[in-house]
């Protein structure tokens, strides 16, 4: 399993504690330091069944000046903007070895990705 996290984020720390408690082996990607590419983000949103703007943190997106229409025509621009400003990306993002991917902000999502391991 891989977890994209910001160590300063309480939801990320909770996700790590949950993985540790479940005995799951994982690798950590500090996505603020090891930024995902627009292509990687496109793959993540596809696995999540979302659009790029669904992965954006509203306040951080506004602060970053990202003001794009939420439509298919601007999808790539969203991916590029999120990749350029990774603080705007929801966290933590967990991907199980089978490809199951969740934004692990709640116990149900964490349980789903742990079950996939």
UniProtKB/TrEMBL annotation:
It comes from the Bacteria. PANTHER family: ARSENATE REDUCTASE. This is Arsenate reductase. Belongs to the ArsC family. It holds the Pfam family ArsC. It comes from Nocardioides jishulii.
């Amino acid at each position: 399993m891989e977890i994209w996290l910001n160590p300063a984020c309480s939801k990320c720390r909770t996700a790590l504690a949950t993985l540790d408690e479940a005995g799951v082996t994982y690798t950590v990607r500090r996505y603020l330091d090891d930024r995902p590419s627009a292509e990687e983000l496109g793959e993540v949103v596809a696995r999540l069944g979302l659009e790029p703007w669904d992965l954006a943190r509203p306040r951080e997106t506004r602060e970053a000046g990202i003001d794009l229409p939420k439509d298919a025509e601007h999808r790539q621009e969203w991916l590029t903007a999120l990749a350029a400003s990774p603080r705007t990306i929801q966290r933590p993002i967990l991907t199980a070895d089978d490809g199951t991917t969740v934004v692990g902000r709640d116990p149900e999502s964490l349980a789903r990705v742990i079950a996939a391991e």
